[in-house]
Amino acid sequence: MTNDNAFSELGLGSDATEREVKAAWRRLVSQWHPDRNSSADAVARMQRINRAFEEIRNAGFRASPEVADPPVDEPAETQAEEEPTEPRRRPIQRKVKLTLEEAASGCIKALRGRTTLTCATCDGAGHQVLGGNCTHCGGSGAIAKRNFFGWPGGMTECAACHGGGIAQRTCPDCQGAGTQVRAYQLKVRIPPGVRQGDLLHVDGRRARGNPPPADLEIRVELLAHEFFELDEDGTIRCEVPVDGFAWIANRTIDVPTLMGLKQVALRRDRLSYSLPGLGFPAKRRGANADHIVIVKPVFPEALTAEQEHLLSHLIASASGEGGEPTDKRLRAWSRKQRAWARGAGRASKEQ
Ligand SMILES: [Zn+2]
Ligand SMILES: [Zn+2]
């Protein structure tokens, strides 16, 4: 912002004194402070007012001729919190979507985005001071208001010079918006073990190439996985359908884990298998929890003639002399069931 621009932002000529600058600034602050002004551009206008004030102050105030005046117009100490300070840019809020595999091992993500910046050409004012008197108001900063019938009805601030009286033009780089849209691009390193909803803070100044104009606050979103469920403690659960015959035969099968395919030796007496250290990190950058495989044995819905034949053989092979099961657990059950059936038979006759 040139100094003339700064004065004009406060609606002043460039020869305004310290007292006039402070008075104008206070008047505009009370008018545009977002606490008091709900219009959409109050925040932006407030920032411009503060920047203008700071610009003039930094350049050195013109001495007020009436220095001996009582200090009623001087900003009081209690207004210190309204003293303009360079507004710190808030971090840019972003989301990053990660697969469980990416989140487990950590990864590098390229992020692109757009952000709205204060226009550098006009420093957010939306206009540039051309110098000389405003041709619309002749330099007075005010024009006669006309009512519905075209009759004069008081004065209103000149829109062409925003009441400053100095000729201006709309900023050609932002078309008067005071802002410009800028694209940014950066690579972000995601540490291993981030979880849903985690916030990662990225220092925007460290980005190379096309850095963002502020820091980034990145919220992690974990994508639902086709196979895996993630527990709070980092345990991964995965249901795997297996060939029922292979399961009975204690065969070894491939199962998916976060680290790729791993072999599991099936046992016909087990449906759940734990693979230590192949789960998700228990905590960020920590050791991995376990991977739990739950097998779902699948048998043919319809048997072929050959399968019927082979199964008959299998069943026969499990029976000894007189059709008694060879397995002692089945023999014990079979005896108990016969005894129970005899008792139940008596009971039904007595009724
Ligand atoms: Zn004007
Ligand atoms: Zn501009």
Defining traits:
rod-shaped; HSP40/DNAj peptide-binding domain; binds zinc ion; Helix Hairpins; three-stranded mixed sheet; 351 residues; single chain; alpha+beta; four-stranded mixed sheet
Report on the structure:
The protein has 351 residues and is α+β, with helices and mostly antiparallel strands. Among the domains are: 3-63 and 127-170, DnaJ domain (Helix Hairpins), CATH 1.10.287.110; 92-118 and 186-221, Sandwich (HSP40/DNAj peptide-binding domain), CATH 2.60.260; 228-298, Sandwich (HSP40/DNAj peptide-binding domain), CATH 2.60.260.20. The protein is built from 7 helices and 15 strands. The protein has helices spanning 3-9, 18-32, 42-59, 100-105, 244-248, 305-317, 328-350, and strands spanning 92-98, 107-118, 127-133, 142-146, 152-157, 166-170, 179-190, 199-202, 216-222, 228-230, 236-243, 252-257, 260-265, 272-275, 291-298. The chain has a 4-stranded mixed β-sheet. β10 and β11 form a beta hairpin. The longest helix has 23 residues, at 328-350. It is rod-shaped. The termini are far apart. Bound molecules: zinc ion (ZN) (2 copies).
Give the % helix: 10-25%
Secondary structure tally, helices: 7
Describe the global form. Answer: rod-shaped
Instruction: List each distinct ligand once.
Output: zinc ion
**Parts with pLDDT < 50 across at least 5 consecutive residues:** 66-87
Topology, number of strands: 15
What percent strand? 25-35%
Order of helices and strands: HHHEHEEEEEEEEEEHEEEEHH
The CATH class of the domain at 3-63 and 127-170 is identified as Mainly Alpha
Tell me the CATH topology of the domain at 3-63 and 127-170: Helix Hairpins
- CATH architecture descriptor text of the domain at 3-63 and 127-170: Orthogonal Bundle
Mean pLDDT: 83
Q: What separation lies between the terminal Cα atoms? A: 107 Å
Q: Could you give the order of strands across the largest sheet? A: 10-11-15-14
Rg over CA atoms: 40 Å
What structural class is derived from the secondary structure elements?
Answer: alpha+beta
